[in-house]
Every structure is written in structure tokens, then in C-alpha cells.
Amino acid sequence: MKILAIDTTSGACSVALYTDGQVSEQFFRAERDHTRRLLPMVEAVLAEGQSSLGQVDALAVSQGPGSFTGLRIAISCVQGLAFSANRPVVPVSSLAALALGARRSHPEWGEAPVLAALDARMQEVYWGLYPSGDITNALLADAVSAPEQVVSALAAAGYHHADSVTAERSFYGAGPGWEYPELAALNPLEVSLESAIHAQDIAVLAAQLWQQGIQVSPEDLEPAYLRNEVTWKKRERIRQR
Asked: Which residues contact 68 (CB under 8 A, 6 or more apart)?
């Protein structure tokens, strides 16, 4: 199985090729350079894997949540490549990929879940809670909330602080969304602020989803903004002032 994965969800740009369990990746921190970098990175990753676009079984992409512009860039690129190669697309949650990447970077972490969080601006975070096992199935679905609402949601779901008598309900934290001070009230076991979304983790998750029969045609690929259109238009107007 070969899957080509692309991500520009946040302040990075990455491309990966998954080949029967082995993954190669190019990853760059690039806030504004995604469009120029993407296709050369795709060519480089395919060349490294001695593959062509026509030899991949599917393409994969982070469908969000994340940067509005970043999501559009990656999804448009994947749609174009998938159309040209006549291949399906496997959409992957950016928060699931963030959670998987955090575990990859921290093999010492135990079996507790990972609360992945990205800064959604406007004093909100994108977040989701993911298990240590099948990360394709979230314990708490991806959402966008004010930080204090995240705390309330975790309490309502029965997840306690690390010093609770029910320590098995503790969790780790991953992602830049944890910079909001209100989230400190959750008292996670450990936080990895430097964790980022990587195409290699998108590729690994896409391989699992592919085996479950989850795929879409390029024309049916849709971003998961989580915010409605009215909110995005308001945000764009604020940026233009």
C-alpha cells in the first residue's frame, strides 16, 4: 500500500510517502511559503521512494480543523493531484495526527489519552481527546471552544486531574493550543507544546482508515473548519482592518 500525504494545517508544510508501513517525510516550518514549497516537496518525496504519483493507492490530507488558508492550500493541492492520477483521498483529522505525533515523539508516555489542542485564535482552541490505542476513534470529538469551556467539557465527561483518586482518567496534552493559561486547570500528566502536525502521522492514520474502507472522491473532499461561515467572514474582516 502506498499513500501520499500532505499537510499545511498550521505553521508548517509537510509531505510524506507511506509504503507498506515505512514512511519518509519532508517537513518545513513555513508560515507563508506553503504554495511555493508543496509541489517540489511532493516530487522529492516520490523520488526518494522511487515512486510516481500514478503508483500511489490514495492521497491523504489533513481536513482540519486548522488555519483556514492552510486547509484550503493543502486540500486544493490534494484535489488536483488526485484528479490527475484518478485516485481517492483519505481525509484525516489534524487533531488525531497531532495526538499521534505527540506519542511518536514521547514513547515514554503511558496509556492515558492525549488531549490535542491547536490555537484557533479569537480566544478559542480546536481540541479533541484521543486514546492511546486506535487514534482514528476520538474519545471526545473535535470541537472549537473557549479554553474554559474545554475545562468544563472534560469535567462533564468524567476526566479528572492527574492528582485525582481516579488517575486512570488523567491525560497528556499536546499542541500549541495549550499555551492558553486557562487550560492549566486541567492539570495534565505532561504537556508537549512543541508537538506539531506531520504528514507522516497523517499517512499512518490514513493507512488505517483506508483499511476500514474510508475514502472519498476528490470532488467530495471537504474541509472540517468547525467554525461556521459567518464566523470566518467576521475573522477575515478583522484581518483586513
From this structure: 225, 232, 235
